[in-house]
Amino acid sequence: MNLKNFSKYFIKQKMMRTVIISLIPIIFASIYFFGWRTLILLGIVTIAGVTTEWIFEKKYNRKVSEAVFVSCILYTLTLPPTTPYWIAVTGIIFGILFAKEVFGGFGKNVFNPALVARAFVYVCFPTPLTIEWSKAALGFPGGLGTYITEGVEAVSQATPMLLFRDTGKMASLMDLVIGNVSGSMGETSAVLIVLAGIYLIYKKVASWQIMAGVLIGFTGLSSILYALGNNQIPNPIFGILAGGLLFGTVFMATDPISAPKTKEGKWIYGILIGIVTVIIRGYALFAGGMMFAILIANTFAPIIDEGVNAYKKYRKESKAKKEEVAI
């Protein structure tokens, strides 16, 4: 399909294409670490997601948004490499339908569709989403020569956050930076995620205020709890590099539709996500927490903007009254 024909069916969204470009190195890394099944899974999920949106948009004579491709990629990259195809497809259909289309389509959704899809399969299918993992490949050709890498059978080889939660042991920081650990397909390589974040900020596609807010909120609370000797809370550096926090910070929290629009609201929103992530990781049943923290913050995003705008209005009116009195 050439670009002219492509535009007949899809809304042109330059911002979304920029996000996809930033995700390409992470996609290739996921293939290297876990095998070609990651690419096949991505293809199947994308077909299911695009088809779902097309069915509902066709009813209103509207084009499919290019944002659906971003949702499909982000959702897929948050899944374990071994996720059954049918479960992955069920999740994206649910996410696109109930987090996007029921609200009226692109630009009207309250929640991030990729995260809603991930939360749905996480809750409904806990075993393949929390227990079945694959080892990260080493050397050359890595996972490029296999369909999928060897499965993990021992606790000592589970994801970094699960390993810490079950045994108190922490994976090598260097492995976390490079991505040579078990985990969700796109969340393991900190260096690639950070580079993607820098690229998105440079292109003015993602909010640096939200990213900074998440890191401030997370680092602040986790540092306090860690200093107080709370055994459930790892040191902040490990916490940032493990468990998908960076991936969620760069790609999910900064979703322009479900995040606040005001500058001050973005800071509050980011800090809220960071704080809630620490609480969920340390005291809830879930080893991660970033996914639920962002969805909780999505709920408050409109209220945060309303509060910020109301405060600005109050300050402006107060200033005007003071000037009248002075006159």
Automatic annotation (TrEMBL):
<feature type="transmembrane region" description="Helical">
    <location>
        <begin position="15"/>
        <end position="33"/>
    </location>
</feature>
<feature type="transmembrane region" description="Helical">
    <location>
        <begin position="266"/>
        <end position="284"/>
    </location>
</feature>
<keyword id="KW-0813">Transport</keyword>
<feature type="transmembrane region" description="Helical">
    <location>
        <begin position="208"/>
        <end position="229"/>
    </location>
</feature>
<feature type="transmembrane region" description="Helical">
    <location>
        <begin position="85"/>
        <end position="103"/>
    </location>
</feature>
<keyword id="KW-0288">FMN</keyword>
<keyword id="KW-0597">Phosphoprotein</keyword>
<feature type="transmembrane region" description="Helical">
    <location>
        <begin position="110"/>
        <end position="131"/>
    </location>
</feature>
<feature type="transmembrane region" description="Helical">
    <location>
        <begin position="177"/>
        <end position="201"/>
    </location>
</feature>
<dbReference type="Pfam" id="PF03116">
    <property type="entry name" value="NQR2_RnfD_RnfE"/>
</dbReference>
<keyword id="KW-0285">Flavoprotein</keyword>
<feature type="transmembrane region" description="Helical">
    <location>
        <begin position="235"/>
        <end position="254"/>
    </location>
</feature>
<keyword id="KW-0812">Transmembrane</keyword>
<keyword id="KW-0472">Membrane</keyword>
<keyword id="KW-1133">Transmembrane helix</keyword>
<dbReference type="InterPro" id="IPR011303">
    <property type="entry name" value="RnfD_bac"/>
</dbReference>
<dbReference type="InterPro" id="IPR004338">
    <property type="entry name" value="NqrB/RnfD"/>
</dbReference>
<feature type="transmembrane region" description="Helical">
    <location>
        <begin position="290"/>
        <end position="311"/>
    </location>
</feature>
<protein>
    <submittedName>
        <fullName>RnfABCDGE type electron transport complex subunit D</fullName>
    </submittedName>
</protein>
<keyword id="KW-1278">Translocase</keyword>
